[in-house]
Amino acid sequence: MITTGNLHKVTTLWLIVTLSILGLLLTNSCTKPKLEDRYTPPAKPYKVKGKWYQPRRDADRFRQTGLASWYGDQFHGRKTANGEIYDMYAMTAAHKTLPFNTYVSVKNLANGRKQDVRINDRGPFVRGRIIDLSYAAANKLGIVGPGTAKVEIVALGTFTVPPPKKGDPQAYDPVDYQKGNFTFQVGAFLERQNAERLKAKLAESYTNAHIATYQNGERIFYRVRVGKFNTLKKAMEYEKNLIADGYDPIIVAE
Description:
The protein is of the alpha+beta class and about 250 residues long.
């Protein structure tokens, strides 16, 4: 039989246990680092080709689908936007707004391959693209041959890094994307004959129609390209003609 005194003791014990559990839960929730609580360098806006970009404060629940491309030996050994030296054999990538050191999972929607990469650069600043992969990452995903692929990227988290010491300059030395040797890739084929037919058709209206071959160890890709420019501005002006003629060109650096 439960008396009033026993009921009071049981109620008091229950309250003590409940408060203890709540205290542990609150402690864990306060000490567990959240993505938005981790240190990230100040997200300063930057301007490329006349357009301003505002980097995100965090990558929480970030997901995006679009076209991926890659960049390799032309930039190997040069500084990335966060001050690191670009290594084409590392699993890294460039994104226009994700915080530096964000890890993202990249899935090639054409073949289902996945690869995790770390964001350490800015770009790509080319129409229709959402991420620029290192050579190693693009090779893993099967993108090196065709040059581009439709992908889905999902943010996994941001690597925790200590804040810079007081007085240290903010590392930011963006690559000059305005100068180089640019051309347009109009198609990529596994059959040489198909590439030759497109090349012949393009040569009727455009300069420097040519085929660039690439072998990934398994297959040879025949990439049809036209045009030759030493600045990105000139290339973008030329791009309008290709689009007007019904092509979907991709600017590439050779």
